[in-house]
Design a protein that fits this description.
The protein is 27% helix and 34% strand. The chain has five helices and 15 strands.
Protein backbone atom coordinates (compact mmCIF):
# COMPACT_ATOMS: atom_id res chain seq x y z
CA UNK A 1 0.00 0.00 0.00
CA UNK A 2 1.42 3.38 -0.96
CA UNK A 3 2.41 5.86 1.73
CA UNK A 4 3.13 9.58 1.51
CA UNK A 5 6.68 10.12 2.75
CA UNK A 6 7.55 13.64 1.57
CA UNK A 7 5.69 16.80 0.55
CA UNK A 8 7.88 19.01 -1.63
CA UNK A 9 7.48 22.41 -3.26
CA UNK A 10 6.55 21.02 -6.65
CA UNK A 11 6.24 17.25 -6.05
CA UNK A 12 5.03 14.79 -3.42
CA UNK A 13 6.77 11.43 -2.95
CA UNK A 14 5.04 8.13 -2.12
CA UNK A 15 6.54 4.79 -1.10
CA UNK A 16 4.72 2.13 -3.14
CA UNK A 17 5.78 -0.66 -0.79
CA UNK A 18 7.26 -2.75 -3.61
CA UNK A 19 10.75 -1.25 -3.73
CA UNK A 20 9.67 1.60 -6.02
CA UNK A 21 8.49 5.16 -5.41
CA UNK A 22 5.89 7.43 -6.99
CA UNK A 23 6.25 11.16 -7.65
CA UNK A 24 3.13 13.33 -7.90
CA UNK A 25 3.67 16.50 -9.97
CA UNK A 26 1.90 19.55 -8.54
CA UNK A 27 0.78 22.71 -10.32
CA UNK A 28 2.94 24.75 -7.91
CA UNK A 29 6.00 26.51 -9.32
CA UNK A 30 8.96 28.27 -7.73
CA UNK A 31 9.14 32.04 -8.02
CA UNK A 32 8.87 35.40 -6.27
CA UNK A 33 5.86 37.69 -6.11
CA UNK A 34 3.96 35.58 -8.59
CA UNK A 35 6.77 35.53 -11.17
CA UNK A 36 8.30 32.18 -12.20
CA UNK A 37 11.99 31.72 -11.35
CA UNK A 38 13.69 28.27 -11.48
CA UNK A 39 16.29 29.52 -9.01
CA UNK A 40 13.80 30.70 -6.39
CA UNK A 41 13.66 29.08 -2.96
CA UNK A 42 9.91 29.13 -2.48
CA UNK A 43 6.66 28.40 -4.25
CA UNK A 44 5.71 31.66 -5.93
CA UNK A 45 2.69 30.72 -8.01
CA UNK A 46 0.29 27.96 -8.94
CA UNK A 47 -0.38 27.46 -12.64
CA UNK A 48 -3.04 25.02 -13.84
CA UNK A 49 -1.40 22.48 -16.13
CA UNK A 50 2.11 22.96 -14.77
CA UNK A 51 2.18 19.52 -13.16
CA UNK A 52 0.98 17.79 -16.30
CA UNK A 53 3.51 19.68 -18.42
CA UNK A 54 6.31 18.89 -15.97
CA UNK A 55 5.53 15.19 -16.03
CA UNK A 56 5.33 15.05 -19.82
CA UNK A 57 8.66 16.86 -20.14
CA UNK A 58 10.24 14.55 -17.58
CA UNK A 59 9.13 11.47 -19.50
CA UNK A 60 10.34 13.00 -22.76
CA UNK A 61 13.83 13.80 -21.47
CA UNK A 62 14.30 10.64 -19.40
CA UNK A 63 13.44 8.52 -22.44
CA UNK A 64 15.71 10.65 -24.64
CA UNK A 65 18.63 10.27 -22.23
CA UNK A 66 18.13 6.55 -21.63
CA UNK A 67 18.15 6.05 -25.40
CA UNK A 68 21.47 7.95 -25.43
CA UNK A 69 22.87 5.50 -22.87
CA UNK A 70 22.50 7.44 -19.61
CA UNK A 71 21.39 5.71 -16.41
CA UNK A 72 18.31 7.23 -14.74
CA UNK A 73 15.81 6.35 -12.02
CA UNK A 74 12.83 6.57 -14.40
CA UNK A 75 10.57 3.49 -14.57
CA UNK A 76 7.17 4.56 -15.94
CA UNK A 77 4.56 7.30 -15.87
CA UNK A 78 0.80 7.69 -15.70
CA UNK A 79 -0.01 11.00 -17.39
CA UNK A 80 -3.72 11.29 -16.33
CA UNK A 81 -2.81 10.97 -12.62
CA UNK A 82 0.29 13.22 -12.99
CA UNK A 83 2.54 10.56 -11.45
CA UNK A 84 5.87 8.96 -12.29
CA UNK A 85 7.26 5.71 -10.85
CA UNK A 86 10.99 5.73 -10.10
CA UNK A 87 13.69 3.43 -8.75
CA UNK A 88 14.89 4.14 -5.21
CA UNK A 89 17.94 6.36 -4.93
CA UNK A 90 20.17 7.80 -2.26
CA UNK A 91 20.50 11.43 -3.29
CA UNK A 92 23.82 13.11 -2.63
CA UNK A 93 23.91 14.84 0.73
CA UNK A 94 20.44 13.48 1.59
CA UNK A 95 19.03 15.44 -1.34
CA UNK A 96 20.79 18.73 -0.71
CA UNK A 97 23.10 18.76 -3.76
CA UNK A 98 22.07 20.38 -7.04
CA UNK A 99 24.23 20.53 -10.16
CA UNK A 100 23.81 23.42 -12.59
CA UNK A 101 25.09 23.64 -16.15
CA UNK A 102 25.26 27.11 -17.69
CA UNK A 103 25.49 28.10 -21.36
CA UNK A 104 24.64 31.78 -20.85
CA UNK A 105 25.56 34.27 -18.13
CA UNK A 106 22.12 35.08 -16.72
CA UNK A 107 20.27 35.01 -13.40
CA UNK A 108 22.32 34.36 -10.27
CA UNK A 109 25.50 33.93 -12.31
CA UNK A 110 25.41 37.60 -13.28
CA UNK A 111 24.29 38.65 -9.81
CA UNK A 112 27.44 37.01 -8.42
CA UNK A 113 29.92 37.83 -11.15
CA UNK A 114 28.46 40.95 -12.76
CA UNK A 115 31.72 42.85 -12.28
CA UNK A 116 33.51 40.25 -14.40
CA UNK A 117 30.98 39.18 -17.01
CA UNK A 118 28.25 40.87 -19.04
CA UNK A 119 24.73 39.46 -19.05
CA UNK A 120 24.03 36.99 -21.87
CA UNK A 121 27.71 36.22 -22.42
CA UNK A 122 28.01 32.66 -23.84
CA UNK A 123 29.52 30.15 -21.41
CA UNK A 124 31.21 26.80 -22.23
CA UNK A 125 28.93 24.46 -20.26
CA UNK A 126 30.06 25.85 -16.89
CA UNK A 127 29.15 23.42 -14.09
CA UNK A 128 28.35 24.70 -10.59
CA UNK A 129 27.21 22.80 -7.52
CA UNK A 130 24.93 24.30 -4.90
CA UNK A 131 23.38 23.21 -1.62
CA UNK A 132 19.60 23.36 -1.30
CA UNK A 133 19.14 25.62 1.71
CA UNK A 134 16.35 28.17 1.44
CA UNK A 135 17.51 30.24 4.41
CA UNK A 136 21.07 30.48 3.05
CA UNK A 137 19.97 31.18 -0.51
CA UNK A 138 21.20 27.87 -1.99
CA UNK A 139 24.92 28.67 -1.68
CA UNK A 140 27.62 27.43 -4.03
CA UNK A 141 29.85 24.72 -2.59
CA UNK A 142 33.40 23.73 -3.54
CA UNK A 143 34.78 20.30 -4.33
CA UNK A 144 36.95 20.31 -1.22
CA UNK A 145 34.06 21.15 1.10
CA UNK A 146 31.82 18.53 -0.54
CA UNK A 147 34.45 15.89 0.14
CA UNK A 148 35.26 17.11 3.67
CA UNK A 149 31.56 17.00 4.59
CA UNK A 150 31.14 13.57 3.04
CA UNK A 151 28.58 14.67 0.45
CA UNK A 152 30.87 13.39 -2.32
CA UNK A 153 33.62 10.81 -2.25
CA UNK A 154 37.01 11.53 -3.89
CA UNK A 155 36.61 11.32 -7.65
CA UNK A 156 32.83 11.85 -7.65
CA UNK A 157 33.05 15.61 -8.23
CA UNK A 158 34.84 15.11 -11.56
CA UNK A 159 32.50 12.25 -12.46
CA UNK A 160 29.40 14.35 -11.75
CA UNK A 161 30.79 17.34 -13.62
CA UNK A 162 31.60 15.30 -16.73
CA UNK A 163 28.28 13.44 -16.56
CA UNK A 164 26.40 16.73 -16.27
CA UNK A 165 28.14 18.18 -19.33
CA UNK A 166 27.38 15.07 -21.37
CA UNK A 167 23.73 14.93 -20.31
CA UNK A 168 23.22 18.63 -20.96
CA UNK A 169 24.86 18.41 -24.38
CA UNK A 170 22.19 15.90 -25.42
CA UNK A 171 19.42 18.14 -24.08
CA UNK A 172 20.93 21.28 -25.63
CA UNK A 173 21.23 19.64 -29.05
CA UNK A 174 17.69 18.27 -28.92
CA UNK A 175 16.28 21.71 -28.07
CA UNK A 176 18.35 23.31 -30.83
CA UNK A 177 16.63 21.05 -33.38
CA UNK A 178 13.36 22.67 -32.27
CA UNK A 179 14.74 26.20 -32.60
CA UNK A 180 15.22 26.55 -28.84
CA UNK A 181 18.33 27.68 -26.95
CA UNK A 182 19.20 26.16 -23.57
CA UNK A 183 20.62 28.85 -21.26
CA UNK A 184 20.98 26.87 -18.05
CA UNK A 185 19.58 23.77 -16.37
CA UNK A 186 19.60 22.26 -12.88
CA UNK A 187 20.05 18.52 -12.37
CA UNK A 188 20.10 16.11 -9.44
CA UNK A 189 21.94 12.82 -9.08
CA UNK A 190 22.02 9.96 -6.60
CA UNK A 191 23.27 6.42 -6.02
CA UNK A 192 21.29 3.27 -6.68
CA UNK A 193 21.40 0.33 -4.27
CA UNK A 194 24.73 -0.81 -5.73
CA UNK A 195 26.33 2.63 -5.45
CA UNK A 196 26.12 3.48 -9.16
CA UNK A 197 25.43 7.13 -9.98
CA UNK A 198 22.15 7.85 -11.74
CA UNK A 199 20.15 10.86 -12.84
CA UNK A 200 17.13 11.49 -10.60
CA UNK A 201 14.24 13.86 -9.89
CA UNK A 202 12.57 15.66 -12.82
CA UNK A 203 12.97 17.47 -16.14
CA UNK A 204 10.18 20.01 -15.93
CA UNK A 205 10.41 23.53 -17.35
CA UNK A 206 10.95 24.69 -13.78
CA UNK A 207 14.56 23.49 -13.76
CA UNK A 208 15.73 25.19 -16.96
CA UNK A 209 15.82 28.53 -18.75
CA UNK A 210 15.22 28.36 -22.48
CA UNK A 211 14.99 31.06 -25.15
CA UNK A 212 13.54 31.22 -28.63
CA UNK A 213 14.84 33.91 -30.98
CA UNK A 214 16.46 35.56 -27.96
CA UNK A 215 13.25 35.77 -25.91
CA UNK A 216 12.61 33.71 -22.74
CA UNK A 217 10.15 30.85 -23.19
CA UNK A 218 7.52 30.57 -20.45
CA UNK A 219 7.31 27.15 -18.72
CA UNK A 220 3.97 26.03 -20.14
CA UNK A 221 4.92 27.35 -23.56
CA UNK A 222 8.15 25.37 -23.36
CA UNK A 223 6.33 22.10 -22.84
CA UNK A 224 4.11 22.81 -25.83
CA UNK A 225 7.08 23.68 -28.05
CA UNK A 226 9.11 20.61 -27.08
CA UNK A 227 6.30 18.08 -27.14
CA UNK A 228 4.51 19.21 -30.32
Amino acid sequence: MEKLIYKGKTKDVYDLGNGLYKLFFKDDMTGTNGVFDPGANEVGLTVEGAGDAGLRLSVYFFELLEKAGFYTQFVSADIPSRTMVVKPSQAFGRGCLEVICRYKAIGSYVRRYGSLVKENTPLPAVVEMTIKDDAAGDPLITQETLEVLGVLQPGEYAELSNLTKNVCEVIKNDLAKKGLELCDIKLEFGHDASGKIMLIDEFSAGIMRVRENGAPVLPLDLAAKILK
